[in-house]
Amino acid sequence: MTTDTSRPRRRLRLSTREALWAYAFLLVPLVFFLYIRLWPALQSFRLSLYTWHVDPAQRTFVGLQYYERMAAEIAARGDLYKALRNMLRYFLIVVPGQVALGMFFAVLLNSVRRFRAFFRAVYFAPYVTPAAAVAWVWGWMYSVNFGVFNNLLFAWSEFVTRIGLPFLAIGPQPFLTSPQQALPAVAAVVVWQQVGFQVVIFLAGLQGVPREFHEAAAIDGANAWQRFWHVMFPLLNPVLVFSVVISTIATLQLFDQVVNINFTDQGGPLGSTLTIAVYMYQQAFQRFQLGYAAAVTVLLFVIIMAVTLLQLRITQRRVEY
Question: How far apart are CA 215 and CA 199, in angstroms?
């Protein structure tokens, strides 16, 4: 029996080969992501089922005991309850503040024709500054005795008193030493530092909007606000979704600013600035309850995943061109 060697081999289509090469290149970062992200998460869940010991052979299986402890802590309104409550407050302040200010400044910068790169660098500089350094500087500015803000309030009080309006005087504020003012003060620092990232993201989205859309809306008689709301804002939906999700994840993981802005009372006063990440750190490295801290890590992972999926479902919508 002879074979016909003159018959051409069947070759894969170009689209199939491109897809295979794409999957091949995506496989490497996928394996890296699974090893760096998913594997530690699984190990944290495994660790949360055991009492911690340096020798793995001496670890004791406790099942869901740590999760029951978390439920009891929340029911008793302990520190974990305060951390969860504070995270909701941080979310309500930081995420809308970042997104709204980032979009506002991006729209302003988009209309600037000269020194645009300089202004973009100025807004972006706080984002690349180490969070610990930012927190230390702002902690000094919030100081009751010699902080910049209280000095300004003192100067303002003297001015309004001299002109005969003493009722407008504002006395020194406790800021970080007040359970009522500490959380908004920390949230303001986070917004200030992160808004530069939002500016760059929204500015890139605005520059991607075709100029023809603006010109068509202007010809139809739309003013600046109408062009933004009915033309630019709908086209920025993908950027908006990305911005909200990224800022939410960063807010739920808030740690550096809380720990460093008031180093002598981390998470205080009276737990008013405590976050889940700080609570987990305290349990693991101050009380050496690593099994319980791993359970808190799993809780934080579940919260971030649930909130992210919910946000994507609510905010993501298809834009019709």
Answer: 24
Instruction: Read off the pLDDT of residues 198-238 as tens digits, 9 standing for 90 and up.
Output: 999 998 888 887 777 777 877 777 777 777 787 788 888 88
Residue 121 sits at the vertex; the CA angle it makes with 119 and 122, to the nearest 5 degrees, is 65
Task: Give Cβ neighbours of residue 175 (< 8 Å, ≥ 6 apart).
Answer: 142, 143, 144, 147, 149, 150, 181, 182, 185
Bond into 269 cis (ω within 30) = yes
User: What would the pLDDT profile of 14-28 be if each residue is shown by its tens digit?
Assistant: 778 888 888 888 888
Strand partners, 61: 50
CA quadruple 162, 164, 165, 170: dihedral sign? positive
User: Comparing C-alpha atoms, which of 47, 63, 118, 88 is closest to residue 295?
Assistant: 47
Angle, helix 79-110 to helix 276-285, in steps of 10 degrees: 130
Q: How far is the C-alpha of 259 from the C-alpha of 278, rounded, in Å?
A: 7
Q: What is the DSSP letter of 10?
A: P
The model's pTM is: 0.84
Residue 9 makes CB contacts below 8 A (sequence gap 6+) with none
Tokens of 262: 């008031």
Q: For residues 204 and 31, what is the distance between their CA atoms, to the nearest angstrom? A: 30
